[in-house]
Amino acid sequence: MSSNLAGRYVRTQTSSIIATTVFFLVVALVLTGLMAHVVVTMTRSANEIDDARASRAARAAVAAFVARLSGTTTDNAIWDDAYSAVSSPGAADWAYENWGKTSEDYALYDGAVVTGPDGSSIVSAYVKGKSFQPGTFFGEAFFQQINAAAAPAKVPVVNFIKTESGIALIASQAIQPFEAAAEFPKFSVLSFYKAFTSEVLDTLSNEHELEGLSLETTPKPGFLNTPITDMKGAVIGYLVWPSKAPGSAVFQQVYPYLAASTVILSLFLIGVLLVGASEARRLRQLAQTARFEASHDSLSGLLNRQGLLRLLEDLDSPDPSSPRLYLVDLDGFKAVNDAWGHAVGDDLIRIVSNVLMTSHPEVLAAARLGGDEFALVHVGSTAREEMEEAILALFAEPFKIDGRTIEVGASIGAAAHDGDISPLELLRRADMALYRAKANGKGQAVEYDPELDRERIRVAELEGLLKNAIGSGAIEAVFQPLVSASTGAVTGLEALARWKTATGNVSPEIFIPLAERCGLIDALGVHMLRTSIGHAKSWPGLTLSVNVSPIQLCNPEFAAQVIAILQELDFDPNRLTLEITEGVLMTNPDQARRSIDQLKRVGIKFALDDFGCGYASIGALRQFGFDRMKIDRSLVSALDVTANGADILRATISLATALQIPVTAEGIENTRQAAILRDAGCDQLQGYMLGKPMSAYDISSRLEEESAA
């Protein structure tokens, strides 16, 4: 009976302690919350009010900067004397005396440019009293602004623009008489620009009370900023300045009083922290949480890689039903992230995690290994094929997320725990099988086979041989004639790569994709270009076509490499045509366009190869400005197979003719094909009937025979 009373007394005391602790904690939290709310609100409000004032001042500073240069431009552009002078033979001298010379030490502008009525010729261009090239300094945007300002107007076109040295404000206005006539010819354009220099920033800072004002390319963390945009609305820089934070300054003054209050409140909290039982429970919970997080994925709640390996180690024991590991990689998950955002992608990961766990009763555990890759551990008697069908069936129907219909597929790699292998080896085997499944196409399932490892070793050995072959020049160039459809004369040659080894020839369909996968395609491309040009120098008057991999064209250094080789070998760029497939237009159109434009400026031509076997659009043909179209050999061979082959071919050539793009047909094997193509408007032919790929020596011999005849 006394022990019951003692127990009851202990429980009562415990309850009393808990009640007292809760009371102290509530008082402390209420006081802390009230005090923190008042201080934070006052500090934040004061800071926000001053930051808003500073932002308005920054915008006013930019507007004032624009207004000054705009007014200066109008004063000089709407001027009868200027209109008469720029139309005279002495326009350049007049422009220099009135604007170019003034730019040397004039406070209102740093440079003055006068362009002719055609919008592209430079009449006068001076910066700080010295001549300069505005096209190089400002880029293409300069001429876009000139075109926009070519018409007479009472206000100039004003834009910020990215220059070689930073950011500048440029104002452009047609040079026109003060009184407008009924009709005018095209106008010359006057452009003044003022660079965003430190002196300009100091002036704006002093005029608008923006201490510490600077110009940055990106927003500076912890600082206020105003974006600077160009004529297209793209942000090219930021005006950045520190916040005065008056609220924070006041906070520093009252900080001692707040600290004293905090000390008082802390005394209350000490009593809470001394409750040993609560602290022990908290620590135990933290330990359990840490153990869970160490072995589980935070997004899906499934095992992570470490947890999966630990599970496989625990299963590593004699068992009649050996575990089997399935790796599942989502097909199309990146497209979901790109289209709907990462939040939807995360929701999809959670949904897929749940359905994988319930895919089959014999699934022991599921794991997320990272990104969109999952693992399933199967222990049971169900056949592998049945398990794979059950997993793939999960993705047969689209998923619904917030009203969106999301379609993804899956590729599966499977490996059985056969023999005494480690969990890491089992995971590696399943990963090898998954890699092969993805290479075979979407929605595939592959079981690990030792042949996968043997193939990997063979590919690694072939990579080494390919690297040595490129370095030693063992990969040679052969040339297939390109023949005029009207005269039958050889007008050009296409260079093709050939690799001869001691065990036989290696097909380009093998070693070129291998070079792309292992990062050797740039070296191979440079080798082929250098070798081909070296031979082509002996055949003056003939064009040279060289195939370019999409990976090469997407390399930012590709254009510079090609130009350097042409200069080194003193080869006329107008004789060189680079053949590309439409794949590069899909993967990285922006970089492809930059490389094409840079090379076309020096005279190199571009041909769209294999047209007719993919999805190249009319828009792509126009946008990239191809100089030639090569019809895929499948369309030519269809002439002898399908009844409407000739109609399809004529329609394709008519499309090129409408776009004013000359056409080359490859794969011609008989005179009937050549005749149809010639009649359809094809101007250049290529194929075994006209000449097989030949060595440089054989090409020279053929050319000598033709010239002798």
From TrEMBL:
Organism whose genome encodes this protein = Rhizobium changzhiense
Q: Does the keyword Membrane apply?
A: yes
Put simply, this protein is called: EAL domain-containing protein
List the keywords (alphabetical). Membrane, Transmembrane, Transmembrane helix
Name all EAL domain ranges.
Answer: 459-707
- By its UniProt entry, which InterPro entries does this protein fall under? Biofilm_reg_signaling, CHASE4, EAL_dom, EAL_sf, GGDEF_dom, Nucleotide_cyclase, Rev_trsase/Diguanyl_cyclase
| Domain of life according to the entry | Bacteria
Pfam families, alphabetized: CHASE4, EAL, GGDEF
Against SUPFAM superfamilies, the record matches this protein to: EAL domain-like, Nucleotide cyclase
GGDEF domain location: 321-450
Protein's UniProt keywords contain Transmembrane: yes
